[in-house]
Design brief:
Elements (H helix, E strand, L loop, with lengths): L1 E3 L5 E3 H27 L14 E6 L7 H8 L2 H4 L2 E6 L4 H9 L5 E5 H9 L4 E9 L9 E6 L14 E4 L5 H12 L8 E4 L5 H6 L5 E5 L2 H7 L2 E5 L1 H5 L4 E8 H6 L1 H20 L1 H7 L8 H6 L11 H13 L9 H4 L3
Parallel strand pairs: 3-4, 3-5, 8-9, 8-10
Antiparallel strand pairs: 1-2, 5-12, 6-12, 7-10, 7-11
Length: 339
């Protein structure tokens, strides 16, 4: 099935599917944000007394990129910068934007493609500092395109006409899967993307329910343990210096509490500096707040930690999002990324 656009361009069914998914994402972000704003209270604005630290709430999935946050708590890094941090690991990726905009949480992690889509929809999100980043090393990154070891598929191009799982159709995982196929000379429109949460990917691959999947750690290691093999490293295909996700807040919060935002960013950067020098402590910390075992944590590839959100990566991701029909116009990156 296909459709001809007003410009005469012929869109394949997969492109229409992506546009439909993008519309669902935009509607979800907008309606959930409105509902959350209508029910918001002032709890997130509460701060300690003048002689005590400022309390802030961070929202993120309980994945490896949180290890420096917990280490920063242990080492007194947040306290040094006048902050007392509470971590919310229950807020999902799709509800983090309305939670930030309604001030239920002060900062949250979001993949850069999702933030680009949100900004294009007029939502007041602003990336403050990276939360995770590609290692920049094909073959040694924390995300990969995988297939069953006995599938006979050895390159991303061979996934044309086949089914590939991503956790969300409109986020950076989908962009990475498509770009891995394109970079290998394949037609990404000929690949059928389906949504499967990362924790379910190892079983989906081993049971043959999908032909391939884009997956990140620790589920990448779990998939490999069940016989899956990486055939593509889409993060490095997307950009040389790829910011995968960012800690973000609202532009309104930045205007109202610039000193808190500065303190948060400085503390995160100090936490990253510590993490880069103490990888053994990072690996030891991961099993304490996730279901990742110490054995897996000792072997998994850890995300890169960067101090700056890559504007070059954001420009490329915005271009991919336009090309794939997720957005009609590119966002103003000055409005999206805190300088």
């Amino acid at each position: 099935m296909s459709r001809t656009t007003r410009t005469g361009r012929h869109l394949p069914a997969t492109a229409l599917l992506r546009r439909g998914a993008a519309g669902v994402l935009a509607a979800t972000l907008l309606t959930t944000t409105l509902a959350a704003c209508n029910s918001a209270d002032d709890s997130a604005d509460a701060a300690a007394s003048a002689d005590g630290p400022t309390r802030i709430t961070l929202a993120s999935s309980p994945l490896g990129h949180l290890a420096p946050i917990y280490l920063a708590q242990d080492k007194g890094i947040f306290a040094k910068h006048g902050l007392e941090v509470e971590v919310d690991t229950e807020t999902s990726d799709l509800t983090s934007v309305p939670s930030v905009l309604s001030r239920k949480v002060d900062f949250a992690t979001g993949d850069l493609t999702t933030l680009i889509v949100a900004r294009t929809q007029g939502l007041d999100v602003k990336a403050v500092v990276p939360a995770s980043a590609s290692t920049g090393q094909a073959g040694a990154d924390y995300g990969a395109l995988v297939v069953a070891g006995d599938s006979g598929i050895t390159s991303p191009k061979q996934l044309e006409g086949k089914t590939v799982a991503v956790n969300i159709l409109t986020n950076i995982a989908a962009a990475a899967a498509r770009e891995a196929v394109r970079t290998d000379g394949g037609d990404s429109d000929a690949v059928k993307l389906v949504e499967i949460p990362f924790p379910q990917v190892p079983a989906a691959i081993s049971e043959g329910r999908v032909d391939g999947a884009w997956v990140v750690e620790p589920f990448l290691s779990a998939a490999k343990a069940q016989g899956a093999v990486p055939i593509g490293w889409g993060f490095t295909d997307l950009a040389e210096d790829l910011t995968v996700s960012a800690w973000y807040t609202s532009g309104a919060f930045i205007e109202q509490k610039p000193e808190v935002v500065t303190a948060f960013r400085d503390a995160i950067r100090e936490a990253y500096a510590y993490a880069r020098e103490h990888e053994d402590e990072v690996r030891a910390k991961i099993p304490t707040f996730t279901q990742i075992t110490p054995e897996v944590a000792s072997k998994m590839t850890i995300t890169g930690w960067r101090d700056e959100v890559s504007r070059q990566a954001a420009e490329k991701l915005a271009g991919y999002a336009q090309r794939d029909g997720l957005i009609d116009t590119a966002p103003n990156l000055d409005e999206l990324i805190l300088p």
